[in-house]
Amino acid sequence: MTRRAVALRLAVAWLAAASGAAAQTPGEPRLFLSVFGGYRSGQQLWVVNDQPFAVLVAHGDSAVPAGGYDTLDLVRRFNPGFVVGAAGAYFPEPTVGFEAEVVFLGMSVESRCAIRQAQPPQAGDLDPELCLSLLGQSVPTSAVSLSLGVVGRVNPGGTTSPYVRLDAGLIARTRSTIELTGTFADANGLPIPATVVEDSRPRTTDVHVSVGAGLALAEGKGYQLRVEGRDVIARVDRVTGLADPSNPATGALAPPHGGRFFHNLVFTVALDVIFEKRRGRRY
After folding, report:
1. Residue 254 lies in a domain
2. Does residue 120 have a cis bond before it (omega within 30 degrees)?
3. pTM here?
4. Least packed by Cβ within 10 Å: which of 26, 83, 255, 279?
């Protein structure tokens, strides 16, 4: 075989390979698992102003009503915190897929309290001390959410792929968002807890919906990075009105309360490990 024939055959083979490569798109991630972390914004939950509260005095190692009422202004809010989670996604079609996700949310609950004492103030009134203990009090509260959803994406085989998502599921918290417990010092200076707002039937499990958008960045054959912002719309129990302050045993308040949906912004960065890709063609 002449050198010219060999060169011609090599050129034809090279052109055929290049044509086939050009006819294919880069691999489209079809099945992947993710780990992610991010930041969650804070949220005010409820405010109660001008709430009458029984004057409490020390009686041994407890606080008891002594007659008369002070007035409290109370605030409850979620502090900002971090989130971590894991998810799995499957795309039976190039642009539409399904996902499942589990997320752990650190969401400590912070309290605020202001007091106006009855005039003249009653001797031994513990309410100012209880209120001061609630001012800026942060109670660690954890939550876990489980959700299922759909994902729509464009340019799935490119180096960057924008997407949107819609999820719904359940969220479980470890603590009530209603109960408030303050402290006062006994004769020995030891802190004694006293309930200011009680919650006999705390709602710790509820529903949520999440709407998000992000950008997937191809970083290699087997993984990709994603940056995402989402609005988590969750139902949370909140105080809805003033409580009857005349609890003869403890003086604790039992205000009316009910669920309300709150918006909460979450920003995450995820690493996706790709287990399966789909090869597309340009024509």
Report:
1. yes
2. yes
3. 0.79
4. 279
